[in-house]
Amino acid sequence: DDGGELSSSDIEEDPEFEEQLEKRRKRNLAEIRRVEMKWAYKGFKSWQETAPKMLYPPQPNNPNDAYPEDHVMRLFKENTSNTKPKRKVLVCAPSNAAIDEIVRRVTSTGIYGRDGTLYTPYVVRLGPNLHPSLQQYSLESIMATRRKATSGGAATNKEDTYRHRISILNEAVIVCATLSVSGGRDLLSYPGSFDTVVVDEASQGVEMGTLIPLQMGCQRMVLVGDPKQLPATVFSATAERFGYGKSLFQRLQQSDFQVNLLSTQFRMHPAIAEFPSNEFYDGGVKNADNIMELVGEQPWSHIPIFGPVSFFNVPGQEEKSYTSLTNEAEANFIIHIFKMLQVCWPKEPWREKLAVISPYAEQVRLIRQKFRQLYNMVESKVCPVEVNTVDGFQGREKDCVIVSTVSALSDDCRLLFILLMIVSQEEGPTYGSVVCLAAIVIETVILQTFVCVRASANAF
C-alpha cells in the first residue's frame, strides 16, 4: 500500500498548475546553483554540520521507533508557541497505514507549544486510501466542507478550488502524505514550503522515493527508521543488484551522518523485550526503570497461556495456494484462541483491540473467511476482526496481535523480528498477550504477554 501513482488527472493541461510548476522548477534550479556555487569556494563547510537527523533504533537499539509523531511533537515544543507563526512540518512515509497512524496519534494526543500548553494542531492528510475514521482530516473533505459553508455546496470553478486548496495548506501546521503523494499535484502546485520534513519508516522507502518530499524545500530533514526491519520493496532483481533497494536512510547511515539512537523501551513487558534485544540488538535495548508500572499487572497474568511468554505446539501442514501458502490447522487454532478471548473478556471491542497478521496473502484470505463463518457473515461484509499481511499492518498497532506465520523457516529470522516489533509496539497498561504460531506460528500479543504456538523445534 504505497499511496499510488499519479493519475492522468494530475498531469492534465491546466494553465494555473503549469504556471506554479514552472515557478517551482525555477526555484529548485536556483537552489541547486546556489549549492553548487558554495561548493566551489575554498573552506566551504560540508552540510554535515546541518545534516539530516536520523532517529534510528539502537545499534543495538530500541525497536519502538515506530512513532515519528513523538519527534514531531518535540520539534513543535521547541519551535512553536501560541504567539508566533507556527512552523510547518511535512510528514511522509512509504505506506498509507503508517501515515494514518501518525495522523491518528497526533490528532488524538495533541502537542505542546513552547508555553507548555497542550493543543491540537491543524493537520491535513493528502492522498487517497486513508482510513475512514480519518476522513475529516483529508484535504478533499476539508475543501468540501468549506465549499458547503461558502457556496452551499454548489460546484466551484477551478480558480475557487485552487484558492481553497492553497488556503487550507497555508493554515495547516502538519501536512501528512505518503512519499509518492508528496510528489502529486496538491503539493506541486503549492507555492509555499516546509520548515521540516519528517520521513517515518525511512528504511522501507527506496532512495528515489525519499527524495520526493525534498522538492518542497526544507531547513531540516528527520529520518526515522530501522534497517533491521522491513526493507524497501523492489521487484526487479536487476534493480536490487544495482543498489536500488538501498534506502536513503541506510546510505546516510553508512556515510557516518549523525544518528540518534533510541535504546530505552517503555512499551512492552521485559520478557517480550528480552528476545529481540538479545538476538537483534546485542542486548542493547534497555527497559525503562518504571517499566512494570507502565505495563501494569493484568488480571489474567496468572493464566499460563497469557503469561508474558508462552509457546504451544499445533500439528498442521502448510499447503500451496497459487503463489502463496495456507495452513488450515493454524487458521482454526486462531479462531479457537479468539473464542477464548471472547469468553474471558466478552465486552471488549475486538475489532479495535485485535489484529491477525500473516506474511501470506492466501492465509489472510482464509482467516478472514473463517471469521465471517464464525459470525455467519456473507463474503461482501467487512471482517469482524482486522486481518492483514505483515507488510500491510506495518506501522500499525493493536492491544492484541495474532501472527500466523504458516510455515516455520529456520533461516527467516528477520521475519520473526518484524513480528516481534509489531506485537511490542502498543503503549500503555492495556492488554498484554501475543499469540504466535511458528510454522504455524501464532504470536498473540497483548502488550504484556507473548504466547507462541510452536509447530517445530527450529521455529527460532
Automatic annotation (TrEMBL):
The DNA2/NAM7 helicase helicase domain, residue ranges: 77-151, 165-236
Domain DNA2/NAM7 helicase-like C-terminal stretches: 244-408
A Pfam family the protein falls into: AAA_11
Domain of life: Eukaryota
Keyword ATP-binding among UniProt keywords: yes
GO molecular function: ATP binding; helicase activity; hydrolase activity
CDD domains the UniProt entry points to: DEXXQc_SETX, SF1_C_Upf1
GO CC annotation: chromosome
Record's keyword terms, sorted: ATP-binding, Helicase, Hydrolase, Nucleotide-binding
Protein known as: ATP-dependent helicase NAM7
